[in-house]
């Protein structure tokens, strides 16, 4: 009972972070499912896709109303990404053997591989949050309209879809820089378009799981509801708290957690 309560509190915190910073909170969803609630890593990444997708959808709807979403860029990036994330969940994840490598002293399983890859992603996300690339883009004037590199956008859409499918994280820290540097979108439009792409990727990717495994909908919808409430709280608190500074501080938390997960899975 206590663990369940802590899990829902964590869902609320994840939503608040998403509302305050515009991203990053979803990177905590899988660790909460795996280490706090004891859910199998493969199932946890699937559940995370649903939570991230629903949460991002609320932000995307708000951005659509403001006219900040670039539909053309969204389709060019999202179509290959959606195909990749669905295929990853439906075909690649089930095809990975339960035991990848084993000898007398080492047992490297599918679950360990997923969590190690997730830890590496957390480390990358933490540096992205702490370095604050958005300011660098503003200073260098990179957000001026230029020719979009469509081929690279498609390839990176596939890559992002595979990563999203493997670890269940939205990948906003990957998508936003891609949209800025390759699609040449202004920063606000890149962030808004990213949420729209994340919502599509995550929810369609989740279908790859929903079609082949039994989902605890009562738990999943309850957890998502707490995350959504947290988003609205975060959006309200954003009026009083500097989101940029908070994002850097959150980056340090993600860094520590990434190191802990890597150590736990590889050394213990």
Automatic annotation (TrEMBL):
<keyword id="KW-0472">Membrane</keyword>
<feature type="transmembrane region" description="Helical">
    <location>
        <begin position="150"/>
        <end position="183"/>
    </location>
</feature>
<feature type="transmembrane region" description="Helical">
    <location>
        <begin position="217"/>
        <end position="237"/>
    </location>
</feature>
<protein>
    <recommendedName>
        <fullName>Probable membrane transporter protein</fullName>
    </recommendedName>
</protein>
<feature type="transmembrane region" description="Helical">
    <location>
        <begin position="249"/>
        <end position="266"/>
    </location>
</feature>
<dbReference type="Pfam" id="PF01925">
    <property type="entry name" value="TauE"/>
</dbReference>
<feature type="transmembrane region" description="Helical">
    <location>
        <begin position="42"/>
        <end position="61"/>
    </location>
</feature>
<keyword id="KW-0812">Transmembrane</keyword>
<keyword id="KW-1003">Cell membrane</keyword>
<comment type="similarity">
    <text>Belongs to the 4-toluene sulfonate uptake permease (TSUP) (TC 2.A.102) family.</text>
</comment>
<feature type="transmembrane region" description="Helical">
    <location>
        <begin position="190"/>
        <end position="211"/>
    </location>
</feature>
<feature type="transmembrane region" description="Helical">
    <location>
        <begin position="67"/>
        <end position="86"/>
    </location>
</feature>
<keyword id="KW-1133">Transmembrane helix</keyword>
<dbReference type="InterPro" id="IPR051598">
    <property type="entry name" value="TSUP/Inactive_protease-like"/>
</dbReference>
<feature type="transmembrane region" description="Helical">
    <location>
        <begin position="107"/>
        <end position="130"/>
    </location>
</feature>
<dbReference type="InterPro" id="IPR002781">
    <property type="entry name" value="TM_pro_TauE-like"/>
</dbReference>
<feature type="transmembrane region" description="Helical">
    <location>
        <begin position="6"/>
        <end position="35"/>
    </location>
</feature>
């Amino acid at each position: 009972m206590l663990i369940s309560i802590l899990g829902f509190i964590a869902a609320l915190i994840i939503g608040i972070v998403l509302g305050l910073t515009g991203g990053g909170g979803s990177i905590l969803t899988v660790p909460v499912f795996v280490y706090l609630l004891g859910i199998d890593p493969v199932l946890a990444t699937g559940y995370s896709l649903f939570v991230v997708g629903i949460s991002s959808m609320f932000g995307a709807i708000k951005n659509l109303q403001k006219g900040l979403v670039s539909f053309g860029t969204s389709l060019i990036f999202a179509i290959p990404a959606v195909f990749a994330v669905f295929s990853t969940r439906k075909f690649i994840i089930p095809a990975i053997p339960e035991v990848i490598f084993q000898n007398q002293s080492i047992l490297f399983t599918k679950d360990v591989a997923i969590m190690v890859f997730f830890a590496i992603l957390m480390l990358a996300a933490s540096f992205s949050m702490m370095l604050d690339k958005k300011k660098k883009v503003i200073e260098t004037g990179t957000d001026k309209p230029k020719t979009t590199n469509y081929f690279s956008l498609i390839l990176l859409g596939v890559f992002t879809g595979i990563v999203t499918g493997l670890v269940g994280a939205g990948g906003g820290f990957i998508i936003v820089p891609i949209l800025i540097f390759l699609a040449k979108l202004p920063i606000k439009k890149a962030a808004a378009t990213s949420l729209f792409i994340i919502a599509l990727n995550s929810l369609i990717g989740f279908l790859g799981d929903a079609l082949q495994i039994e989902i605890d909908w009562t738990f999943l919808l309850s957890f998502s509801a707490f995350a959504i409430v947290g988003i609205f709280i975060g959006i309200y608190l954003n009026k009083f708290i500097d989101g940029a500074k908070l994002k850097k501080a959150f980056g340090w938390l993600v860094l520590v957690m990434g190191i802990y997960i890597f150590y736990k899975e590889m050394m213990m």
